[in-house]
Amino acid sequence: MADIIKAALDELSKHEVTGVEELVIVIGDLTNLGEDQMAFAYEVMTRDTILHGSRLVIEHEAIRLRCRECGFEGPADMIKNEGYGHSMPVLSCPECKGPAEVIRGMACCLRSMKVREG
Ligand SMILES: [Zn+2]
Questions:
Q1: Residue 32 C-alpha to ligand 1 middle, in angstroms?
Q2: Residue 87 pLDDT more than 90?
């Protein structure tokens, strides 16, 4: 989160901006970052910056796997984990159960900003 805010502030410092309305970030489902935690961290970390008071919009990036064995490419199977109330991704190939490479779902980055210019 700190890196995202730093990237946003760096970008904003290059422009004549009087305020920020909205900040859109992308969070991969594999990062296990909770939305509430992110929103709270954002609120705290932007307190004394131009980002203060802007709306944080969180977009999710689904997990996508690629298998080196059979060439499968697609979403990961999910295991329902009743105890924790959320699903866990299976990081092996759904087709041949071979080792799969995660090609999407680990993002944690800034996508766009809506700003007010002076
Ligand atoms: Zn496979």
A1: 25
A2: no
Please work out, in degrees rounded to the nearest 5, the angle formed at the alpha carbon of residue 74 by the alpha carbons of 68 and 78.
105
What is the CA(66)–ligand 1 centre distance, in A? 8
**The domain 2-117 is classified under which CATH number: 3.30.2320.80, 3.50.50.100, 3.40.50.720, 3.90.105.10?**
3.30.2320.80
Convert the pLDDT of each residue in 88-107 to its tens digit.
Answer: 889 999 999 999 999 999 99
* Mean pLDDT, residues 78-82 taken together: 80
Tokens of 23: 């900040």
Q: How far apart are CA 14 and CA 54, in angstroms?
A: 18
pTM for this entry: 0.82
- Residue 106 Cα to ligand 1 middle (Å): 20
